[in-house]
Amino acid sequence: MAILINAQAVSAPDDPRVSLLDLLREQLHLTGTKKGCNQGACGACTVLVDGERVLSCLALAVQYDGRQVTTVEGLGAPGDLHPLQAAFVEHDGFQCGYCTPGQICSAIGMAAEARRGVPSHVSPDLEADAVDLTAEEVRERMSGNLCRCGAYNGIVASIQEIFGEAAQ
């Protein structure tokens, strides 16, 4: 069995009880993905699996055999940041930075959902082909990612710069 993590094939753990989060952090030393609550309530552990956001603390690593997992380390590199990473720097979308990797991965997955027309609780048109990422939409869709520092205004501004109405 192999899981593609940041485009690298990695053997699934022998122990089927190992979470995807623990595989990433403890065995592969990809420490960008954070263990916050370890209960799926804070979003700090969010990664992308085949482009969709997943709470890695709630996922068993063996479930992802043959799938593509992308962590924050797989999005950009020093000197070549992903556009959303650069926007977080520009808009002060972080303070302590603990939640930032999960926020960024979640935002990328969320933007893909909006492009596919997946509605949220605040979407005005439930049958639209795509959803405009207004500030209200972004706040609703990112509500599963908590920031104890309260950097929400910078987070929303960063996401809107890259994926919002002005970026369309």
From TrEMBL:
Gene3D superfamilies noted in UniProt: 3.10.20.30, [2Fe-2S]-binding domain
Superkingdom as given in the UniProt entry: Bacteria
One Pfam entry name: Fer2_2
UniProt keywords, alphabetically: Iron, Metal-binding, Oxidoreductase
Residue span(s) of domain 2Fe-2S ferredoxin-type: 1-75
Record flagged with keyword Magnesium: no
Matching InterPro entries: 2Fe-2S-bd (IPR002888), 2Fe-2S-bd_dom_sf (IPR036884), 2Fe-2S_ferredoxin-like_sf (IPR036010), 2Fe-2S_ferredoxin-type (IPR001041), 2Fe2S_fd_BS (IPR006058), Aldehyde_Oxdr_Iron-Sulfur (IPR052914), Beta-grasp_dom_sf (IPR012675)
Protein name per Swiss-Prot or TrEMBL: 2Fe-2S iron-sulfur cluster-binding protein
